[in-house]
Amino acid sequence: MKNTIKYYWPTVLWAFFILLLCSIPISIKEGRGIFFTGFDKLVHCGLFFVLSVLYCAGSIRKWHTSSIRIEIAVKNTIVLLSYGAFIEVLQSRVFTWRSGDWNDLLADTIGGCMGIFAVLVTSNAINHTNEKS
Predict the structure, then answer these.
(1) pTM for the whole thing?
(2) Per the UniProt record, which residue ranges are transmembrane (predicted)?
(3) Which among 26, 49, 68, 92 could bridge 100 via Cys, Cβ 3.0 to 4.6 Å?
(4) How do the domains of the chain map onto residue ranges?
(5) Residues 5-33, mean pLDDT to the nearest whole number
């Protein structure tokens, strides 16, 4: 376990940061965002984008590869989706001042998939450039 966590410590810290943000009570009237309608969904998407990039970077370091393999990408997607669902369940059951929302889970999933896709594209572009050299 200690050997595995050394690759994922930035991911774990970011996951705790997300959990902290999602547990803070906020006082926004229903249907209104902080800056605009849907800002909350954009924040969820961005937080999970960063989480997925950190998680993929940890996977690349752990498995000593230059890119993530498809099975690692699928596993990472399942873990990120599960974490997003866990947070939404906590918001609906434990953090009663917050509300669990399917749209938040959708935004989490989209952000996570965007991050994994960004890592795949970036790592393949770097590998393609290295092959030409």
Answers:
(1) 0.89
(2) 7-28, 34-57, 78-97, 109-127
(3) 92
(4) 2-23+38-132
(5) 84
- Total residue length of the chain: 133
E strand intervals along the chain: none
Distance (Å, rounded) from C-alpha 98 to C-alpha 19? 12
Q: Are 52 and 63 in contact (CB under 8 A)?
A: no
Buried b (16+ CB within 10 A) or exposed e, 66-90: ebbeeebbeebbeebbebbeebbee
Find, among 47, 59, 64, 22, the residue nearest to 114 by Cα.
47
57 within 8 A of 50, measured Cβ to Cβ: no
CA distance 63 to 72: 10
Nearest CA to 43 among 60, 57, 26, 56? 26
> What is the average pLDDT across 66-88?
94
Q: What is the pLDDT of residues 26-54, one digit of tens each?
A: 765 555 556 788 888 999 999 999 999 99
User: Is the distance from CB of 51 to CB of 11 less than 8 angstroms?
Assistant: yes
